[in-house]
Amino acid sequence: MEKEKTEKAGLELIISEYLNNIITTNKPTKEQLRIISFNWEESKKHILKLTNNYGLYFHSELLKRLKKEFNIGFSDEEARDLYNSLIEYDLKTLTDLPNFAQNIKIPLTKKQEKKFWLNFLNKPNWKKYHLEDVVENLGTPKLTKGELSYICNDYLKIIAGEKEIDRVKVPETTQAEDLLYLLNLIKSSPEWDMELAEKALNKQIYFLANEFCNDRFELFFNKIGLILNPKIIRGYYRNLLSGKESVYYSAERIVKDFEIALKRTGVSLEKEDKEDEKAVLDFYREFLRPGNLNHINKMQQLTNIPYNQVVDLVYSNFLKQGNIGLINQLRRKLNIEPSFDEYIVQEAYNNLFQNGEIEKALRVYLETDVEPKTNEKIIKQAYNKIEKILTSKELPYHLSMKVELQSLEWMNKRFPEQSANFVKKQIKRLVKENKFDEINFFLEINDTSQNLEEDYVLSYRRGDWEKAKSLFEKNKEVIFKEYPEYAKLYKYIP
Fold it and tell me: Domain for residue 164, yes or no?
């Protein structure tokens, strides 16, 4: 019994090695083939057992060689028993089965052919190239109208999301191109479930703007016979313009997709429809930039909805961002001067001050010549933000210090009280940190905004002995408390 098991394992190993040699294009030995043929009854079991491991193509090569060299192989009954089993397998095995049958010269029975086609075409992932391979060996499928209708409507169920597919096991399903090939091949029309087709179309309506999806258009509108619903198409356009239907959210891509869909459907947006007009104007507001003008002009040409309606709003949005550079670029390209209401200018100031962006606030002032009327709370927020920004830099060597100095001087003239408090705080911080080189930056903003105790330290360091003495006498207790080491130096002042 133990010897019999060893012999079986050895025979299976020989068959495996022979199949591996076929796969790797190594030359299989005739002696291996002789052993397989000599033990044919046992070999058959191992060949069947190894079908899943190696695929039918390599098995058919083995069987062809056995037939040629030793005139041995499966009987018709054995082959057809095998077919009955393989017909229930996966798509790869099904695709290889007709070629396997052809190679061993034992055809499928008519009943098996019928079962094969139903199993094959009801797989959710067969492709045109699979079908081409099978037809070459088995001929055109013969399907009843009911069978064809079931296959086609099952495809629609998957597209409409009414049939669950395991996307891990089946990452790519049958597509319109594949189904069209089948319909053209058998020259027959199914009975389509029109309600299901409508659902499937709504799920995949994005294909209207895809230049590579002509097959879907052909299937839904020419084969199935759906009628383009202008209301649905215009709803799709509105989503497209908002970026909801675009993988790549850019003016160029949206305009390109929109133009493709227009040409394909012949359905236009309606200028008189408020929703349609709003969708186009929202697109202009989002994308009206100097670099997008070609795309904006193209959209205006496609929709007959002018973009000049939103130019002031776009300018206002740029102003709120403090982006005067974009305003200047756009005014040159459009030859349209911006006009800002005071409300918009003040909104811009508030927004920029809250973010501590005083450079941009100054640019707004230089652009509009409108004075800020910002409340004390927001200005305090602005200085808090500025402090965070400034304490993160090495002053005065940072490249933008000159610009920031101009901005802070501008703020000082408009908000002197808040500016004085800010400067005092910064000078105190820098004296405590012994960063005397950076203090001049703040003294340029407001040279009177310092506490007496800091003024004493700075007078001492400058050698202004008279002022140092005077300040010490006025503020002795605070100086001893805040700067005891400098207070002790008083007795050495000449």
Answer: yes
